[in-house]
Amino acid sequence: MTKTELYEALNYIDATREKRTVMANWVLDNPKSMRSLLEIIFMGEDPISNRAGWVLDYVIQRKLSYLYIHLDFFTSKISGVQMDSSIRPLAKACQLLTIAYYSKKDKEARKALTTEHLQQIAAVAFDWLIGDYKVAAKAYSMTSLLLLGQQFKWIHPELRLVLEQNYASGSAGYKARARATLETLGKMIQN
Questions:
Q1: Neighbours of 65 (CB within 10 A)
Q2: How far is CA 190 from CA 147, 184, 186, 187, in A?
Q3: E strands present in 10-165
Q4: 26 CB neighbour count, 10 Å cutoff
Q5: DSSP 8-state secondary structure symbol assigned to residue 104
Q6: Are the C-beta atoms of residues 38 and 74 closer than 8 Å to each other?
């Protein structure tokens, strides 16, 4: 399936789990289509990019390694996405990548993710955390930054500052995740 054909197929995907699953399973069976899927996600204000994000979300939960060979492209483009419905799956992808990188089990992630990739994820995660985005993107960003702060020492103090400054005005979901993140940061500092 070409990128154009994939784009057309995504036009028939809706929010139902069944239709998203069918398309995601097709991508899982055709890993070479991953680049086209990412290109569609990064098309900007196109509503089909949201649907591609839904499919990406499903694919990476099952096979995160499909993203590894596209990390240069992925990390260079994530900061340009502006639509909330596209940002949520990208923020989740960043969280899954950082979890995999700091996991002892996923040696492949450690080989695939470079310092530059991690820095680009950190920068966009702060943008999502500080910007006017929905709580899911902020929550995924908190986790990514918490992990990345183990390697980049400047992150934890900045993360603490942002969470403390925005806590009072945050939603209940934001406050719950921020509270948990601040507790973890406190424990890390004590150790």
A1: 14
A2: 16, 10, 6, 5
A3: none
A4: 15
A5: S
A6: yes
Tokens, residue 102:
């700091």
Tokens of 189: 């500092």
What count of residues does the chain have?
A: 191
pTM reported for the whole predicted model:
0.95
What residue type is assigned to position 111 of the chain? K
- Token representation of residue 106: 């996923």
The pLDDT assigned to 191 comes to: 63
Run means of pLDDT, 10 residues per run, the chain, 191 residues: 92 88 95 96 91 95 97 97 92 98 92 97 97 95 97 96 94 95 88 63
Beta strands in the chain (DSSP E): none
Contact 177, 139 (CB under 8 A): yes
**79-84 LR contacts (CB < 8 Å, sep 24+):** 79/120, 79/123, 79/124, 79/127, 80/42, 80/44, 81/41, 81/42, 81/44, 81/49, 82/44, 82/45, 83/45, 83/49, 83/50, 84/133, 84/134, 84/137
